[in-house]
Prior knowledge:
Chain A has 271 residues and is mostly helical. Helix content of chain A is 45%, strand content 9%. In chain B, α5 (110-135) runs parallel beside α7 (168-183) and α10 (260-272) runs parallel beside α11 (290-305).
Amino acid sequence: GERGTGKTMTLCHVIHFCSRQGWLVLHIPDAHLWVKNCRELLQSSYNKERLDQPLQASAWLKNFKSSNERFLREIKTQKRYLWGKRESTEEGRPLGEVVEQGLARVRSASDAVGIVLKELRQQSQRGSLRLLVAVDGVNALWGRTTLRREDKSPVSPEELTLVYNLRKMMRNDWSGGAVVTTLSQTGSLFKPSSAYLPQELLGKEGFDALDPFVPILVPNYSPREFESCYGYYLERKWLQHENARTEDGKAELQFLSGSNPRQLDRLAGPL
Amino acid sequence: LRLIHTTTAVQRKNVGASGPEKYTEAFIKKQIEEFNLGKRHLANMMGEDPETFTQEDIDKAIAYLFPSGLFDKQARPMMKHPTEIFPEQRKIQWGEDGRPFHFLFYTGKQSYYSLMHETYEKLLNVQKYQDQLIAQDLPLQKEKRNLAGSRWLTKIELEEMLLEKLSDDDYSRFIQLVQKLMALPGSDIEEKYIQKFSREVPVQMQKVVIEPLQHDERGVAFSTGEGRRKTARATAVVYDNGTGKMTVNGKGILHYFPVLQDREQLLFPFQFLDRVGKHDTVCTVSGGGRSAQAGAIRLACAKALRSFVTEKEVEFMRQAGLLTVDPRVKERKKPGQEGARRKFTWKKR
Lengths: 271, 349
């Protein structure tokens, strides 16, 4: 959908619903943050060609830990992972340890993310837990990046560990969960501001990768939605201006915002 | 010391500056003949019929043959009848023996005083006529002439008519006299004389015609309006029975005007008439910048809405300034200054 029509909000609704139902939620707030303006890029220890992003990975691990604490104690690792010469995680240890290892050793945070994703994929395939992958701004995974290596050669998204692992999650090869994504133009790189269709934003590669794909268009407010939003603002006493409470005020707000939720929010803010 | 070699400039006697050159009658006649001949030649050159060659055709031909880029129209080449070019001048007022023709010559302002005398004579005539009517017990007719549509001659016009200079005092006295003459009830008989001294004032307020509503194929009433502001030109078509949507150049208003200020400008005509959600609009706009386009569309919508609305509301709109074209345009940059008003930095040394 277009800018400001409520795609991220709908995603949050879905996440809330699923977490209420008891699913494990893997939420990436904005995939564009992983492909732009990175300060540090390390060469990955696991795979020589790829590049790590310690900062973003650690931030995400922190969020993941705080949101899914009880799952982390329950889920056990399947394999033995070597972190360096001396540290390793044995089989059967709770996943929380992997996360903490990633937080403690910032250098290997991206690998920790990769491990977490792999484990969760395998476990949900077995059926022990239900997994929801919610990615906001999924078109970042297949576009270009603004990052460069030290020799000023551009980096393509496949060469970033985080992006590579995430793409594996998006493929159709596991079951027992759901993938809900949004396409966002606002953070996207090198795309015109009027593009909002999936094909334009994802590019051919991305479109093929997300193959069995149900597109949902999020339009501007319908008249009913607008009235309910307006009623909500009135109830919560957000609209303080006397004129805002009249019929004329309502018509004015509708015209000026063009029934766009973001514009309505910005208009109603100072009122 | 004797002056031996001198220049001619010194030898010329100090002659005082004479007034405007006097043209003799023969000179004027010769000019008229030359003008007519030239007119026929010009008609021949342009391939038109010399008999039916009007002054307009002459102007067009001259503009074609001598194109000029000068801004002042009166500085460009022109070919007009000599009476328009050479100002009227008084012929010599006295005969060969030195005796003046007019009896009031020695007053100095002979035509002015003769005019005053004539006007006073007419006044006396009217009074006599009035007395006659009263004597015969006939009703005095008083037809109201259209005072609002006419004005008296200005001082300059009167000077041109009399061919002599007047003072403000003289002019005011004359006007007072003519007004007194017109105020008298029986002045209908001197109507013709008075009309020589009054001019028609062109009607200022041209009655703006409000177009009636046109109907679409589906039966929806609509009307068009045009607006402009500062180089932007816009046309708006306002349909009835709508939901308040607006399309500009094929895009919605949110896309075309991301700034709130522009959208508020568009909202204003509808909000003023309390018809915010009732009309659909389709607009096309070109030229200008963001703000100018918004102002142009606002004017176009207001003009289109006139057909949907009563006359009183049209009057309200006019007073609110919704129907007036904004005359502000970019001011010209002057030489010697950096911008239109900004001067160069002043350095003391």
